[in-house]
Amino acid sequence: MKIIVQNLAINYKDEGDGSVALFLHGWQDNLHTFDSLIPFLFLKKRIIRLDLPGFGESDLPKENWDLDGYVRFIDGFVKKLDIQVDVLIGHSFGGRIIVKGVADKILKANKIILIGSAGIAKNRSIRNLILKVLAKIFGLIMHIPPLNFLREKMRKKVYNLVGSDYIGVGPLKETFLKIIKEDLSESAKKIIIPTLLIWGKNDKETPISDAEKFHRLIPKSELKIIDGAGHFVHKENPQKVAELINLFV
Amino acid sequence: MIGQTNINKKNIAVIFGGQSAEHDVSIITAHIPIIQSLLAVRQFDVWPIYIAKDGSWYCDKAMNELAYFKQNNFETLLAQQKKIRILFDNGLKIIWPGIISKTVQIDVAFPAMHGTFGEDGSLMGLLRMANIPFVGCDLFASAVAMDKVLTKQVVLAEGIPVVPYVWFTKNDWQKNKDIYLKKIDELKWPLFVKPVHLGSSIAISKVKQKTELENAIEVAFHYDDKILVEESVENLIEVTLPIIGNDELQLAAIERPLNKTDFFDFSDKYLSSGGKKNSGANSHYSEIPANIDKELAKKVEEFGKKTYYTLGCSGIARIDFLINAVDKKVYVNEINTLPGSLYHHNWRKVGVSGVELVTKLVALAEDNFIQRKNINYAFNSDILKKTGGQKNQN
Description:
heterodimer; A: 2 domains; eight-stranded mixed β-sheet; 9 helices; B: alpha+beta; four-stranded mixed β-sheet
C-alpha cells in the first residue's frame, strides 16, 4: 500500500486492529526485515511498517536529509495516517530515528523498543583521521594509469577491510555521512518512557557496549541480550525477540 | 571495450532501460529472453543500447550480459562508459565519438522499453523517422494502449465491453473535486484507482472504504496527471492472452495469474519467479492454460483478436481481461504492447521457444517494414509556389 508523505510515495503495510505499534527498519533494509518476527507477536495491535524514504519501494528523498529529516518524515507519516502511536519499535537506523525523535519530543509513544539500535558514535577519532589521510593518498595513487583500472576493486576491498557501510549507499551517500556523524548519547538521557533494549550478543555493527551505554543513559530501560545472535537478532531469533516484545508491551 | 562488428550478420539493436518507473523490468525483458535468444540464434550481431535513468545512451557488448547490471559498482562502471550518439538520418547508426570514432549501421531495432518513452510510442516515433524495421507495435497502437482511458474509449466504440469507470486530470480534480466524488460515488464499490499511463501495477490501489479514496487518488496523481477510478469485478477471474502477428494472428495460451494478494501487483508480476531463477515474469502463480470453461475461453479469444485489430497492434501484445465467473461477463481491462519478458513462459507452453518467438518477431518486423515502405507518404504539390511570400519591402 502506498501513501504520499512530504511529496514522496511511501510503501507501507498496515495490519490488525488496536493501538498502534510502528516498526522502523535499519539502513539499507526494508519493511520485510520484520516478516519473520510479526507472526510471533501476539499483540492486540495495529502493526504498521513502512519502507523509509530511499529504501524498499519508497521514493528517494529529493535532497540529502540528516537524521532530523527522517524524524520529521516519521512525524509527517504519523500525522498523515492520523494515528496515535503506542509503541515505537526500531532496528539499527530505525532505532536512531526513534531515540532522536522521542528525545526531541517530535515523536510520541508510550513505550519504545530498540533492537540493535545505532546512535552511539564509535570512539575512533584517531583511527578515522589516519584512515582519512590514507584514503586521500590512496585515491590519488589509484588515479594513475594503469592503477586506475583497479581503483573500484581496491576501494571496495579497503572499505570492507575497515568495516564500512559506505560502499553501496549509492544516492544516499551524503545522507549517510550526515547521519553517522551524530552521537545520540545526550538524546538518550532525555528519554523518560519505558524502553526495552534487545541486542544480539554477537552484534558487530552496534556492539553490546553500545547497548550497555544506552541502558546506562536511558533511565527506564531494560536490556535483554540474546545469545548466539548478531545485529539482525530479530531475523536470527524472531521467536525469542517476539517473546520479549510480547512481555514488554 | 565496445565490441567487435561482424559483417556477415545482421546488426540488431536491443533498446532498453529508459526514464520510466519500469527501468529495471526493461533490463530483465531485454536480456530474458530477447538478447539471450538473439545470441543463441547466431544470425545477429546484437548491440545492446542501454538508456540510463538520467536519459544517457550507452552501447557496449558487455551489456549483453544481465550480470553487468547487477554489479555493485554498476554506477561507477557506467560513469566510465562513453556515451553514444545516434543518427536517425535514413537509417539508424550508433556512433561512439572520439579521436578514432566507430559507427555501426543498425538493420533492425528491438525495443524492449516498458512504460514512458518506450512502450508509449515515443521510441517507435524515432524508429519510424530513422526508417528501419522495428519489432512490436507501432507508434499509434503503443500510444493508445499506454493510456488506459483512451484504450477503453477505443475498444468500447467497437462494442468490446469494459468495466464502468470515471476519469479525470489533476486539474479537474483540484477544480471540481465534489463533482468527481459524486461521480465516483455512483460506481459500485470496491474500486480501483489507477494512474492512466503507467504500464505496471505500480501505484494502483484497491479502495474498499471512502476514507481510503482520497489517499489513493493522491498516490495515483503522484505518478500521473490523468487517473481513472473503476469498479472492481465481482467473482473475479483475471486472465491474460498474449498474441503475436501482423495480419494473421497467433494466440498463446490463456493465462490466469493466481493472485496471492487482492490484485496482481508489481512484485508478483515481476519478482516472484516461482522458484525458477530467471524465468522473468511470474510463472508459479499462473495457471496455463487457464482453467475456464470453453464458452468463456472463446469470448476471451474473440475479444482478444478484436482488440488487437482495433488498436492496430503488430508484432506482439498482451490483452488483459476481467471475468465475472458468475454472470460470465468478460471485460477487456488493458493492452500491454510489450509484455514483460515477452511472456515467453506462456509461449513455451504452446510450443514456441524463446528463440522461435524472438526470430518470429524479427521476421514480423521486417514484413511490417516492407508493407510500410509500399505506402506513399509524399505527393507532389504546388502549394508552396501558390503561396505568396513576404512582400518586397524595397
